[in-house]
Amino acid sequence: MKIVYFSVTGQTKRFVKKLSLKDTYEIDPIDPEIEVGEPFVLIVPTYEKDITEPVTDFLYYGSNQEQLQGVAGTGNRNFAQLFVFTAKDISKEFNVPLLYTFEFNGTTKDVTNFEKAVKKIES
């Protein structure tokens, strides 16, 4: 399964680099309109919509929204009910499961649990 992600400060990118899943694509904030053409899981950090607008542009481009299988979110738990709100909003808007949430760039346990969630979606 392809992993598509968006990284603002590098935290999400650091998480993705820890994965054993190597088929990854980082959404380019300058040119987000790329069609993936295959099923994927999206990982997003938590930011206001104006910062994550490239993610929305990416999802609405071509068949990307149909290929989206699930979303995972990263953020800061200190934000309480706002923790991973970007991933929660995408999950609702595109009617896909919220597969996993983690803080900052994730722990070894987060990597393992995320990969298990992706494998479950694949089967």
TrEMBL record:
Membrane-spanning ranges: none
Coiled coil: none
Superkingdom in the source lineage: Bacteria
Cross-referenced Gene3D superfamilies: 3.40.50.360
A Pfam family matched in the record: Flavodoxin_NdrI
PANTHER family assigned: PROTEIN NRDI (PTHR37297)
Protein name in the entry: Ribonucleotide reductase stimulatory protein
